[in-house]
Q: What sequence folds into this?
């Protein structure tokens, strides 16, 4: 008996042996997922896999996660027109090196719910979804400790929908890590026309955005595209001290956010104890905090525009380089709303309001908004465009003759820069530490797309 117990103890000390399960078509892939056991590595062979909804309910373990990967990412595609493709309600799965294409009506490539803790999405290329990754509670259990890293998320055209459009849309999960992703072109052409690159909301804690390249406008333009957010558009339809917060103790650091001309790069909605450190934004309306429950510490950032506080929000803002003023953001919003209101009035009272007058006023408002964008009164685009090589495409290397942007105090919150290099003794604001030389911000995108043979 003692020998048997010793033998069992030895077995328990070692994780399950990895087992490669090769699949060549959609039917084999579904079967492999349906019967997967801890340690399985499900490997897609080259080809096209047409899938409908796939339920993931078999748990892996911490020592032996279940892995779904492609042997040749550039020659393997998953296509789906389902509302949700992978619905994950089990812990310890890894999805990596997958090229996933949705349709005009597809909502989620990954819907992580309930028991879907400790999921890893790594090195994937995901195009054509309202919300490529969606996180939701289920039966009072929310997925925690999800890692989303080194993926490319974008849409080839604005989504014609009234449904939410946010490429990483997380409600309720805690300790999510969203790092080193390329997030772009997430426009919503319908409803309120407001979309987000990524947000964490719904009562979660401890989320992290780090080292992401967010290009609100990349291959197409228009509509209101917000960069990164704690709180998003809000989850809880109540007000007052008893309302739960959208997020607590979240951190946003070393992100580069560009080309959000009609919206803030950073948005905080009813979230507290938020840290915003060493981010760089261009052609966007700075950082906006909204509602009296919001509080953030904002330090050592380069912000196109400024930090704006609305509806009782508070911030501790130190040693940021800001190229505009909060008043400019208010004026830009007012001009945009007035343009919409005039257009609505013309539709309603077309017998009294001449169309040519509407066009004339709209032209003046557009000119005013354009002036605000360039001027230091508003966003101050020209200031940053003079300093950096090509910030509109993510090139923040310095132009000849310009000194690197420094600030006087190191708050010790960020030890490395966007390119993963240790920060030196001089305190450089923004995502890049220029003491280590140039930093190729675009490599975050290029490395991922090159792996899938994507030309851009």
A:
């Amino acid at each position: 008996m003692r020998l048997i117990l010793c033998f069992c103890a030895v077995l328990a000390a070692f994780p399950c042996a990895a087992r490669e399960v090769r699949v060549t078509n959609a039917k084999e892939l579904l079967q492999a997922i349906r019967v997967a056991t801890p340690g399985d590595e499900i490997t897609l062979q080259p080809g096209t896999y047409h899938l409908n909804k796939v339920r993931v309910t078999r748990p892996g373990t911490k020592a032996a996660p279940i892995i779904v990967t492609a042997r040749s990412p550039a020659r393997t595609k998953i296509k789906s027109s389902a509302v949700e493709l992978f619905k994950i309600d089990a812990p310890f799965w890894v999805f990596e090196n997958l090229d996933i294409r949705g349709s005009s009506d597809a909502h989620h490539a990954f819907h992580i719910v309930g028991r879907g803790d400790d999921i890893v999405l790594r090195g994937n290329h995901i195009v054509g979804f309202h919300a490529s990754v969606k996180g939701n509670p289920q039966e009072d259990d929310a997925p925690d400790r999800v890692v989303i890293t080194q993926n490319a998320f974008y849409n080839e055209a604005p989504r014609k929908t009234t449904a939410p459009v946010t490429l990483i849309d997380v409600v309720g999960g805690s300790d999510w890590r969203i790092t080193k992703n390329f997030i772009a072109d997430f426009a919503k052409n319908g409803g309120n026309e407001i979309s987000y690159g990524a947000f964490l909301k719904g009562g979660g804690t401890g989320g992290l955005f780090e080292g992401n390249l967010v290009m609100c406008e990349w291959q197409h333009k228009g509509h209101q595209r917000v960069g990164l957010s704690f709180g998003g558009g809000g989850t809880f339809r109540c007000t007052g001290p008893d309302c739960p917060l959208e997020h607590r103790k979240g951190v946003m650091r070393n992100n580069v956010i560009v080309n959000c001309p009609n919206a803030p790069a950073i948005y905080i909605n009813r979230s507290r104890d938020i840290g915003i450190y060493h981010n760089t934004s261009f052609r966007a309306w700075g950082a906006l905090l909204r509602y009296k429950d919001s509080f953030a510490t904002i330090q050592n950032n380069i912000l196109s525009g400024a930090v704006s506080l609305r509806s009782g929000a508070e911030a501790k803002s130190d040693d940021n380089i800001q190229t505009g003023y909060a008043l400019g953001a208010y004026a830009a919003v007012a001009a945009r709303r007035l343009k919409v209101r005039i257009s609505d009035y013309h539709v309603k009272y077309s017998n009294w309001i001449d169309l040519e007058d509407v066009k004339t006023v709209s032209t003046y408002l557009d000119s005013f908004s354009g002036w605000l964008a360039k001027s230091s009164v508003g966003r101050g685009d020209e200031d940053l465009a003079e300093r950096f090589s090509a910030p509109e495409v993510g090139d923040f290397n310095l132009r000849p003759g310009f000194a690197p942007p420094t600030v006087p105090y190191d708050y010790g919150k960020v030890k490395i820069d966007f390119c993963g290099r240790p920060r030196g003794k001089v305190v450089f604001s923004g995502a890049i530490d220029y003491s280590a030389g140039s930093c190729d911000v675009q490599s975050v995108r290029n490395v991922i797309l090159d792996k899938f043979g994507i030309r851009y």
Q: What stands out?
A: Residues 155-324+379-456 form one domain. The mean pLDDT is 90. The first strand starts at residue 19 and ends at 23. The helical segments are 2-12, 26-34, 326-348, 355-374, 381-387, 443-451.
